[in-house]
Design a protein that fits this description.
alpha/beta, Rossmann fold, five-stranded mixed β-sheet
Length: 617
């Protein structure tokens, strides 16, 4: 054993490797992405790793590996589980032979997601066991235990870390490579009575699953990570208790150790719920405070148990308004909630000295990077469609930031690939609206192809704009089918987006460099006027993948300080001064878009890297 300073996601990855995982598949999504990347970086020779095209494909690949008896893990974020839910719900009825861990990272806040979806609901919905780590060390150990439970009960299991566990750092005690398990497996054995899902088999297996989960609930009551912490002898609130799980437990126990320990229940397996352990915890108590993220899962379970056994215990939490029902918990919020519950007076902010308090942090909303080709793409479409009735349907990725002023180019954003369907729906109801759907290259492969086929088949009138920056930029620049690289390090043939679109049935597919402003505007005007489904591929690499060609400069003698470049583009490298616009050379990548918009040729590129000269509006 030795110690390493690790991110929670890195700890989970190393835990899976130590457990003898044979295959890891997944789709990138914050806060889960580093798990698979760490496995790829530190894997042994017998481990296969892939970024799948989407979460559905990823879970099916992992299931196939588990059918052979291999240990597999699939990684995603909470909204990705929606994409994977179709195979997952059936897989529970089929079961697995090798251990299979479905790692789903939840995102309270939400910090980088569309929703505050709680995977513990999916655990109950799919009748799958769920493990909920409270810190990186426990996540490292728990993933190994999750494989053991998965094999013991022949079922996939959830591992549900949240953002602060995934991205928190700690000094972790981990195994040496000589201590890693080598998991050998027998391979797939044909048995249609087990592996082919039919209604009769599902009915029989449903009965088995319900019986298994009762056994699992008893097993989880003995699981060492579910435990009761007794109250300290000096505590005066002996009839009160706190129940918690996940990162909220870490906040709760830190608070109680400081205030004086109250009886505390830690729930590490929210499904099946450890009922017998909960009964032991409830014995002798009259009031319980439940602290958890995101939904009141523990609170509802304890309320149910109290009703089932006619226990005179009041349960407080999100349902009663004693704990906030949205957003992240924090050490401060948990401490304040516990102090109110225990009737401990808090220090008034009016009494506290604020003389040395630091100033409030400035608000820094996320923006497209300086030199981002998406900014140029959005502005070209905006200019080309000026004065026309339009809708710009966005999608999930860096380009969602196109909604910010001054671009204001994202009218809708729902989930990955949805922009295509929304544009079609609006177009069918409002034929006079020019409908655009923006999608990135990675998202195109993940979830947009079906929408394009639907548009062609149902004779929609819309323009598909593919923002091809040759990477999955938002989640950490992972490869995808269009990059020609796999996570195993192999070079493969790139899947050509234009060829795919033409194969689907599009006759008008044009590719243009968005940093060539004049050509981009002309292209959009021409293509948008064509009937039916047509596509424009704005192709320019992400600035994180290419070295800047040098920064732009402003000729102060020519600059009239009209600030058109700033007001039109909102590039973070452009700055306002009293007499003229200036450029932050540490941010500028030399894309030259601002130079193409300057009406007086005051912005000078390091070299001429665009066509058509200066644009004047």
């Amino acid at each position: 054993m030795h110690k390493e300073f690790l991110m929670g996601n890195e700890a989970i990855a190393l835990g899976a490797i130590a457990a003898g995982v044979n295959l890891v598949s997944g789709y990138p999504g914050t806060p889960s992405s580093e798990v698979l990347e760490t496995v790829a970086k530190r894997k042994r020779a017998n481990i296969y790793v892939e970024w799948s095209v989407n979460e559905k494909s990823a879970i099916e690949v992992a299931a196939g590996a588990a059918y052979t008896g291999a240990r597999s893990m699939v990684t995603m974020k909470q909204v990705g589980l929606n994409v994977a839910s179709d195979p997952l719900m059936s897989l529970e009825y089929i079961g697995v032979k090798g251990g299979m861990v479905v790692l789903v990272a939840d995102d309270p806040g939400p910090i980088s997601s569309q929703t505050e979806q709680d995977t513990r609901h999916y655990a109950a919905f799919s009748k799958l066991p769920c493990f909920d780590p409270s810190d990186p060390q426990e996540a490292y150990e728990m993933v190994q235990e999750a494989f053991e439970y998965s094999e013991k009960y022949e079922t996939p299991v959830f591992l549900r870390p949240t953002t602060r566990v995934c991205h928190g750092y700690a000094s972790i005690t981990i195994k040496d490579e000589t201590e890693y398990r080598v998991h050998n497996f027998e391979g797939f054995r044909k048995d249609s009575g087990r592996w082919v899902i039919f209604p009769r088999l599902s009915y029989q297996n449903h009965i088995k699953i319900e019986a298994r989960n009762k056994t699992l609930a008893d097993d989880f009551s003995r699981y060492s990570r579910n435990r009761i912490y007794p109250a300290c002898e000096k505590n005066t609130a002996l009839k009160k208790g706190v129940a918690s799980g996940g990162i909220s437990f870490a906040y709760a126990i830190e608070t109680l150790e400081e205030l004086g320990m109250t009886k505390l229940l830690k729930i590490s397996t929210p499904h099946p719920f450890p009922e017998n352990l909960a009964l032991s915890f409830l014995d002798g108590l009259t009031e319980i405070l439940c602290i958890e993220e995101l939904d009141p899962i523990i609170e509802r379970e304890l309320t149910y148990i109290c009703g089932k056994y006619h226990l005179p215990v009041k349960i407080y939490g999100k349902l009663t308004g004693h704990v906030k029902n949205a957003g992240e918990n924090s050490q401060d919020s948990v401490q304040e909630t516990i102090m109110q519950f225990l009737e401990i007076p808090s220090i008034s902010t009016d009494d506290a000295s604020c003389a040395d308090a630091p100033p409030a942090l400035p608000v820094r909303p996320p923006v497209l990077c300086a030199g981002c080709p998406h900014r140029a793409s959005f502005y070209a479409v905006k200019s080309a469609m000026k004065g026309r009735k339009t809708i710009f349907c966005g999608d999930i990725g860096c380009y969602t930031l196109g909604n910010a002023m001054p671009l204001d180019m994202v009218d809708t954003c729902l989930c990955m690939g949805a922009g295509l369907g929304i544009a079609q729906g609006v177009g069918h109801m409002e034929p006079d609206t020019a409908c655009f759907a923006f999608v990135g290259d990675s998202t195109f492969f993940a979830s947009a192809i079906t929408g394009v086929i639907n548009a062609v088949y149902n004779q929609a009138d819309m323009t598909l704009v593919i923002l091809d920056n040759s990477t999955t930029a938002m989640t950490g620049h992972q490869p995808h089918p269009g990059t020609g690289r796999t996570m195993m390090g192999g070079a493969v043939q790139k899947i050509n987006i234009e060829a795919v679109l033409r194969g689907i049935g599009l006759s008008i597919v044009e590719t243009v460099n968005p940093l060539d402003y004049a050509a981009s505007v002309e292209n959009v005007k021409r293509v948008a006027d064509e009937p039916g489904v047509k596509a424009i591929i704005f192709k320019s690499p992400c600035i994180a993948l290419t070295k800047p060609s040098g920064s732009m400069t402003v000729n102060s003698d020519k600059c009239i300080n009209c600030r058109k470049c700033i007001h039109k583009l909102g590039c973070p490298a452009l700055m306002i001064s009293e007499t003229h616009v200036s450029i932050d050379t540490s941010l500028c990548t030399g894309c030259s878009l601002c130079a193409q918009l300057c009406p007086v040729n005051a912005i000078c590129p390091p070299e001429v890297n665009y066509k058509g000269g200066v644009h004047n509006e």
